Amino acid sequence: MRKYHTINLKQIDEKLIIQWQQLWERAENANIFNSYEWFTMYRDAYKVKEFEIFACFENQRLVAILPLSPGKRFGISVSSSIGDTVEPTFLIEQYDKKLFKHFFTSVIKNKNLYLMKVDEKAVGLLNNIFPQLFSPLM
């Protein structure tokens, strides 16, 4: 049985950078907007001072990561993906229901989450796992 644990980080160390890059090379949903390089470029260019990174591990192996920053959307305080992009900013090794459930349960605990873009496959999984969080118009 797979066992995951998710941590919330405020700093990035060299080990996490290497793991992030390795995850990006093998992840099912890798795109430029969920790469470590894009995160640092955006953070530096827009002078993002406050952020948190949710990192999910299976044993010691990074299997999902999502950088977030605080902000407001529609007048509500939220944690949102870094930058408004046309592609998902969360990076996940595979579209596995147990992994999605563990990871996003950890991410949404005690916070409002706003993701600008979520691909169709992820929406299907998330809607199945958290039907109460989805609008009937979606």
| Integer-rounded radius of gyration | 14 Å
What structural class do helix, strand and pairing data support? alpha+beta
Order of helices and strands: EHHEEEEHEH
Quaternary structure of the protein: single chain
SSE topology sketch:
Blueprint: E1 4-9, H1 14-26, H2 36-45, E2 52-58, E3 61-73, E4 76-81, E5 91-92, H3 97-108, E6 113-114, H4 120-129
Parallel strand pairs: 4-6
Antiparallel strand pairs: 1-2, 2-3, 3-4, 3-5
Summarize the structure.
This protein has 138 residues and is of the alpha+beta class.
Provide structural commentary:
It is a single chain. Helix 3 crosses helix 4. Strands 1, 2, 3, 4, 5 and 6 form a six-stranded mixed sheet that branches. It contains four helices and six strands. It has helices at residues 14-26, 36-45, 97-108, 120-129; strands spanning 4-9, 52-58, 61-73, 76-81, 91-92, 113-114. The longest helix is centred in the N-terminal third of the chain and has 13 residues, at 14-26.
What features would you highlight for this structure?
alpha+beta; 138 residues; globular; 6 strands; single chain; 26% strand; 33% helix; 4 helices; six-stranded mixed β-sheet
